[in-house]
Amino acid sequence: MRKPREEMIAETKAKLIAAGRQAFGTVGYADASMDDFTAGAGLTRGALYHHFGDKKGLLQAVIREIDAEMTARLNRISAEAPNRWQGFVAECVAYIEMALEPEIQRIMFRDGPAVLGDVSQWQTTSGCIAALSRSIEQLKADGVMADIDTEAAARLINGASSHAALWIAKSDAPEETSRRAVKGFRTLLEGLCVRG
Question: Are residues 74 and 47 in the same domain?
Answer without folding.
Answer: no
